[in-house]
Amino acid sequence: MDIPMISDVFYRKFARTAKILGVSMVFLSSASVLAAEQERYTYTLSMSDPVSYQVSEIPEKGREDVTLAWGGRIWAFTNEGNREAFRLDPEVYAPLFQGCDALSLAQGYRAEGLAKIYLVYDQRLLLFQSRENRALFLTAPDILLAKAQNRASDVKCGPYQ
Q: How far does the signal peptide extend, from start to end residue (predicted)?
């Protein structure tokens, strides 16, 4: 019976580990490519047209063929006119605080607002995490808006990039 040399055992284990690492690297690189592909098609405001919040009674769903990249995000619009209005003055139509919940910001923490729970206040779009947060915000909107503006950059809900 031959006793394997230590170097042979080490080589086989090393080769097996290298194969596992190689397969893992291929998997990780393909997963990151898939994540990048998925991220590319993530629309802001759940694909609602940001201009429609200001000009319609309810927000309208944007189209995939009428989009614009601004502020590190992809925005969808219902028509070319809305896209052009947004392109000319995006700060007017984009939600304040990058879409973070305005009440949560006023209280000092970050929470993502939802596109369907919103308020156009003083001609600016605000998003909220819940209907309760929206109702509470309306109890003292000017005070809470000022607090939210003071705390927005601390929790990375500041201006669009």
A: 1-35
8 Å CB contact between 76 and 63: yes
What are 88's two structure tokens? Answer: 């000319």
Provide the whole-model pTM: 0.73
On whether the CB atoms of residues 160 and 73 are closer than 8 A, the answer is: yes
